[in-house]
Structure prediction request, 659 residues.
Amino acid sequence: MAISLQELGDQIKAARDERKLTQPQLAAQITPATNRTAIAHLEQGRRLGDPEVLQKICNNLGVPGKYWKPFLDEEYRTRLTFEEAVSELVGRPVTLRYHDEHSIIVAQKSIVDLFKSPFTDRQSWESLNSILVFYDVSPMSEAFFAKYFNEDATKSPASFMQSVQRFQAVAIRLFSTFAEAYSRLNEPNQLETHLRPLELRKIDAYRNRRPWDIIETISAERLPDLGYISAARARQESEERQLLAEFLEELATKIDQQGKAAISDYSEKKRRKMGSLLRKFQSQFQHDLMSPLFSPDADAIRRESSAIAPKDSSDLDRIEKTQYQAQRNLSRYLSADYLDIYIATSMRTDADFVSVSTFTTQLFSHDEVRPFKLRYFDPTQSWIEDRVAKGLVEALMLRRSSLTIYMAQKSDTFGKDSEASVALGQGKPVLVFVPKLSWPDGNIDSEDLGGKERVDIERLLASEGEADDKEPDPTVDFQSLLARLLTIRIRKLEASSLSELVRRHWADFDLYGEDGRIEQPDEKAAYRAWLDDSIRRKLNDKPNEKVHGHLIGILVAVTVRFEARAKLFREQHPLALQVILSTGVLNGILVARSIESTARLVSALLRNELSLKLMDDEHNYRLVETTTGSTIRVISRNTLIVNAFSSFYATEHAAAWST
Prediction:
């Protein structure tokens, strides 16, 4: 009986384990050179590799010749390579192992002839289907063969495998397993129907729409009005707000005089009452007045007092006007003829409102996106006070939209994550926008730097840094190296450039909210005052030395955090992959880092022309969007998972409960 590739792999692994060698250690001992992946594929029975390398590995490990010498025969290797390709095609291992000797001889000769004979396309198709009988594989339809396998496909086993991979790149987008894909795409007269969702889309339907210009734009200066309660409620709460504001002003004065211990001058009853009011009016304080961790500085308390204090009549009139404007916009969103894009975000601070509004304004006015005349739900232009009604509105917008854009702020929320999961589960694309630090004149692009190899960052540090940066330190992780390089480059910015950089990034980075990183109260106050000057008054004054240091530290810390979040979203985040409920296909997110890349992806999604590449490793097949490195589809290599999906998904066994 012939030895199978899996048996050979088992022998090699057993011999390596006996010698207590890792795969990389074995690879290093082989000449000509090989790598760990080649050995892993060989041990898994997936891929044979170079015959000379195989011989060196087996001789090195002392594997008996009866297990590996047959694999040096050219015709035998052709057959094994063909079997590997067919296994990939139909999503299960195929072999001639259990045929009689005569059948094996006939099958192997037919495989060799397939690649050596000058067949026409039709002859190749007929010959291939004859060979598939030996492997219990249903015949290819002529349309399927013509789509993925032409005369070039049978010039060599390698070109045949390339044709299989072209099929896989399509199959992974539509089906949960390759077995299902092969079966469904070979159904009589159904190929075009199944492939229709992947056809390029014409954009005439978008261009022929009337312009989407009915939303009453609320300016950035007025957006905080939408984070406020209704003006009517604010008028009713005026006395309580005044009481709390006076308490906070008094507390701030005492803290100026006595320090943080001043809070203990107040009775427990007083602190509980004021704490209740702080919660009622959605205070930004991190800790309650009763908590020993309550320690805001006097300046922060005064700012909170100003935010909570009752508004005068003119302010309330303005807030009411803004909220009425947003309610009219809500009516327009609810009755829109189309709803193309939903923006999933959480908005708790003024910075959040400004960040989301700036993003949507820039994205939908971008040259790549504007011609589509898209209808999009911008939550910063809509308002309704009732929490239940707000949830219903968002559910409807999410259901109607074709694409969800998830704003990856400094932290996630259950609501925002749920919205993205629902969209992915419906089979819709989800695009995650993760901010980055960018200032071209200072050679600062955190996405570019964060995507470099460690050795490249070390080289840049050696050329731009100080004496301590010249020698690489293997104990320092990549994030620390990135932080150091960013620090060096930001320090070189002139005051005007630093101020402009802050104006561009303060909302995305929530620079006011990051003041908790500063310990000294007077330095916190100076930091906030400098932000006020730069952001609100548009001044370009250079910060004092301490503020300068804190500002750079905060910019770098938040930047490194965003780079880690971008990597997390691409690779490990719970949202990274969700099963499309109707098909069992794993749907992945796209990660964008700039308005430009987001606009390009939106345009490509609307046209159905993403740039995609099929990749595989020992665990999964992945379909990757090439410009962002985002995985948008996955099929597992785990045999039991694949079998379970084939057996139970979309069958009567899928749901045990019914109502």
Remarks:
- The longest helix spans residues 545-571.
- The chain has a mean pLDDT of 91.
- The chain is about 55% helix and 5% strand.
- The two ends are 55 Å apart (CA to CA).
